[in-house]
Amino acid sequence: MAAGVQELEIFVREALLRGQSREAIAQALAAAGWTEAQTRDVLSAYADVDFPVPVPRPRASLSAREAFLYLVLFASLYYAAFHVGSLLFDLINAAFPDPASRGYGLFGSSMRWSTASVIIAFPVFALLARHLAREVARQPIKRLSPVRRWLTYLTLFLAAIALICDVTTLVFNLLGGELSIRFVLKVLVVGVIAGSVFGYYLRDLRREEVAA
């Protein structure tokens, strides 16, 4: 597949050198079986300017620093989201105690640990997100960073799995007639957290497509 893409890049460059229009190149590649997305990606590597030879656009590159920042960003997001959910679960258990279980203290070890985790992890996420957003604003090509795209799609995948499991659990208990206020509130907590993360990064990907 890599060899095929390399041949496509060579063909596009040669065609542009010979003065062929982008529309003519796209039509020829479509007739040969290349998809519109493949053709668009290769053509977009060259600026549409009036110059004797094709002018390449800057491409996104992967640096160790950038990988580190994005890994910390998404790790802090996962950690903060998990402990926000855990904290809300503890509050729900305290507000609607289960008579068959032991009582829940307002400031038990679980709640204190979740509170401390959110206090530390969320500011780290917010500061890194702000810093990286400024870098992208200064250099829009960084929006196409490979590590950013991979981690964004991984986050969408995890959020989608959480939503599917959440709704499945709700339907399972609904069919069994075992719904309670505690259970419904916990389902809502998971749905809101996972849905918010999914919606935010889905919009981010759409902005990326528009920018591209």
Q: Looking at the structure, what is the overall shape?
A: elongated
The domain tally reads 2
From the N-terminal CA to the C-terminal CA, the straight-line distance is 23 Å
Rounded mean pLDDT score: 86
Strand order of the largest sheet: 1-2
Largest sheet: 2 strands, antiparallel
Helix content: over 70%
- Number of beta-strand segments: 2
- SS summary, helix count: 7
Q: If you had to describe this structure to a student in words, what would you say it looks like?
A:
- With 212 residues, the chain is mostly helical.
- It folds into two domains: 2-56; 64-211, no CATH class.
- Helices cover 75% and strands 2% of the residues.
- The chain has helices at residues 2-17, 22-32, 36-43, 64-95, 109-138, 146-175, 181-211; strands spanning 46-47, 55-56.
- It has a two-stranded antiparallel sheet with strand order 1-2.
- A hairpin with a 7-residue loop joins strand 1 and strand 2 (55-56).
- The two termini are 23 Å apart.
Write the SSE topology:
Blueprint: H1 2-17, H2 22-32, H3 36-43, E1 46-47, E2 55-56, H4 64-95, H5 109-138, H6 146-175, H7 181-211
Helix pairs in contact: 1-3, 2-3, 4-5, 4-6, 4-7, 6-7
